[in-house]
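Consider the following input, taken from an annotated entry for Rhamnogalacturonase A/B/Epimerase-like pectate lyase domain-containing protein (Gossypium stocksii).
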Amino acid sequence: MFRIQPLVSVLLCCFTFWFHISFGYLITCSGIVPMRYRNDKVSITDFGGVGDGKTLNTKAFREAIYRIQHLRRRGGTLLYVPPGVYLTESFNLTSHMTLYLARGAVIKATQDTWKWPLVAPLPSYGRGRERPGGRYMSFIHGDGLRDVVITGENGTIDGQGGIWWNMWRQGNLQFTRPNLVEFMNSRGIIISNVIFKNSPFWNIHPVYCSNVVIRYVTILAPTDSPNTDGIDPDSSSNVCIEDSFISTGDDLVAVKSGWDEYGIAYGRPSSHITIRRVTGSSPFAGIAVGSETSGGVEHVLAENIVIYNSGIGVNIKTNIGRGGFIKNITVSQVFMENVRTGIKIAGDTGDHPDNRFNPNALPYVKGVTLKNIWGVKVQKAGSIQGLKDAPFTNICLSKINLHGMTGPRYPPWKCSDVSGAAIEVSPSPCAQLSSPQQSGSCANHF
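Applying the prediction step yields:
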């Protein structure tokens, strides 16, 4: 059901080879968070865990993690999940631990939604993202943690999100759906070599975190599953996402930093976010910034990206009332195929938490560079629409070729309230980006 098309696979390998040739080595996240070796190891079966897909293992997981938390072994403890299907309610992780899923191990969320615990809304959102008030706790959750690893031999964390998606479609949700994995106020996090599938809401959500590495993961959800974003770094810094495949019902990777007046008041930006060698498809965007960016987003690098069968290739989105800033964003070495819109930068996207947002809180967008992008079967090249009272500035398009179904197409780019430069772009972009006097916008990006 989920597979990478042969052409996409070949192109991804070519991009990786290009990195070897250009730099002499493969740039990786290594060093942001060192992988920990745990001398102390326990198995979920030591605490009564049964992997028959029927027995509820909530008590086993909670007791195992309680033991890790309170015995505090030097160097931390590894919790081993052997092959089998382990049904459980949501649970909290603790610091200095590794959750290790063996090949064939599945941690599966119970569908008893009425038992799901509630947690307070995020202060930078002011309420649940979907419904006023609190929100359901993520399936696997961590708050205020240090030195945590989720890894293994490509075992699976399955959110069984279908029941939540139907509640959303039927309008029966009382609170915002749970994420699959969420870390809050945490640092030194590694997530690797695990399959995440069927999240009720966003899949992996580091919020108010620093030093986070997410690599070698596979994230899967049906294309019609609502709001199943792949990875959403949110008001977080020093986050590295790489070497992963994502196919979901919403944006593959979306960088966020809070919602309207709540995000402005909280004032914590997302910064130094690196995304590289990610492949995937989505009915929405491949690489996104926003639309919740009220705390600000800066210093984002996305490179060596393959996007296919998607709505938008690269989407930077904000709105009036957001405030905040989006600056120093670079997206390069992108291949896209069968995409409705190649590039979209918009100041009119996204809803509001309530009617108390300030319509005079306008976002500041400056220093966005998109370069070395090639697309085939792209229905519309792009749209860049700033705000009348807050034009987007220093926008650089460089070495971009976006082709239609059977060859080059020349649909008009839609542009307004934007300034910058375009060099070697086909089809030709709007006049606001083609002035030679504006070429300084691209001066430092070759």
